[in-house]
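Researcher: Structure for this, please.
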Amino acid sequence: MVYLILNIVSIAIFAQFYKVVFHFHRNPISVNLVMTATAFIVYGTLWALSGFPVNATVLGAGLFAGLAFYLAVRTFFRAIPYGPLSVSWSIISMAVIVPTVASILIWHEIPSSLQALGMLLVGVALVLCLKFNMKGEHALKTWTPLVLASCLFSGLVATSSKFLIEQQLEPYKLFYLAVVFFVPTAALSILSASTKSRPKMPELLIGVGMGTFSLCTFIFDILALNALPGKIVFPVRAGGTLFLTSTLSLLIWREKISRRQKLAIVAALLAIVLISMK
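Model: Predicted structure, token format:
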């Protein structure tokens, strides 16, 4: 249970870094670059130490997931200035609906009644999240497509991981993760060079912090699954992460959210927990 709690805390802290970037007026491109480069160096090193196992299918899946990850992070960073992190993260958390639907349509998995209820609650949560005024009509129109796009791209990353499991390619996971983080690192390096935005010390610290907590979530996730059954880890992690992230956002950043937004967060929390149940 300790590893599960540490996993939840790591994800919640990671989420707060998004707000830190804009609160202290740091360059998101530089932060993204350092974050993905940190993860790529670690996973690339581990892949090298494992003997450089390579697989063409895994390479393709990694390139696809890497592009989706890059787009997910970029769109989410652009959405953050226009709305509260607690609501934005609630929508991102519902990305679990994408691999769930993919599992039904592609791998012909049959959802349980609880998962079906959770999928319905996703719709309810989205309606509640999107139907409110956020720093003016322009901000709402800007925030909505960005956060929905980020949710979709995040879901595609998870779907790619699901594909890896279905194809029994998990022995190549380190190679997959190295490719996943290489793609955004390369793209952001080009973008950074074209805009002449070199990371300064604050961006380096924030980026390394995000990369470190991202790696911690992966490690604690594995340790938690080794200690507890998935039917406990997945719903508790999903619900606990959203709850703690929203709570920290309200306490640290003094975000003011309406009753409708609070209901949206609760609906999202219930939806994620139910969908995560097997």
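Researcher: Any notable elements?
Model: The chain is about 80% helix and 0% strand. The radius of gyration is 18 Å.
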